[in-house]
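Internal ticket - ligand job 203, guanosine-5'-triphosphate:
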Amino acid sequence: MPHDGDSMQARYLKAVATSEQLPSPVASEFGFVGRSNCGKSSLINGLLNSKLARTSAMPGRTQMIHYFELQIDTETSFFLVDLPGYGFNKTPKNLQKTWDLLIKDFLERVCVREVFFLHDIRRPLDDVDLCLLEDLLEVKKVSLVLTKIDKFSVQQQKQYVAAIQGALGSLLSDVTLHTVSNLHKTGVAELRTYLQHQVHHEG
Ligand SMILES: Nc1nc2c(ncn2[C@@H]2O[C@H](COP(=O)(O)OP(=O)(O)OP(=O)(O)O)[C@@H](O)[C@H]2O)c(=O)[nH]1
Ligand SMILES: [Mg+2]
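stdout (structure tokens):
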């Protein structure tokens, strides 16, 4: 059942710049990845029902891993992890390397239950996106979250979702597809319920 947010508690845990700073694994963690500007931090705020994650119209805003804790009830608490966006060319090469290593170490954590691959519904999935998706699927369960659906009418959304499903090809059956608008809060409560379900159920 979707929550109205009244009983939830959200908390910013920490920023992580190197693998050594990753917190000890005490609860389920969910990673949020995707191109810069696709709406990762915004959706995390929507799920937390807070403004704890910093968002920006300028790509590359989130440059470290940020851990947020969401306590839904006395039995359910988990971490939403905001990962740096990719496809941001202005980042110095050596910094990009450090980020890649950090993300790799993050993905190896057993406590990371699933990765949410966020993608702006207006953009076609290109080879870089598909490569990353394949890499993620090798190590984790993956949900593909199409963001900013408020940009389209319901009819257009259907067409764009169908195009993305086509681009996924054989990967389609390996991912769980979600559509959201954080602006209109469409699909956000459902995604929170999905997260809660993953915490309580294996697989
Ligand atoms: N129309 C619309 N705009 C959105 C939505 N979610 C986010 N945005 C806008 O998209 C821009 C980027 O959002 P962020 O949440 O900062 O994106 P990000 O993926 O965290 O970006 P980086 O941290 O740079 O990787 C901001 O201008 C947001 O206001 C949405 O649901 N609808
Ligand atoms: Mg961000």
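Auto-summary: Strands lie at 9-16, 29-34, 65-73, 76-82, 112-120, 141-147, 175-179. The chain has a mean pLDDT of 89.
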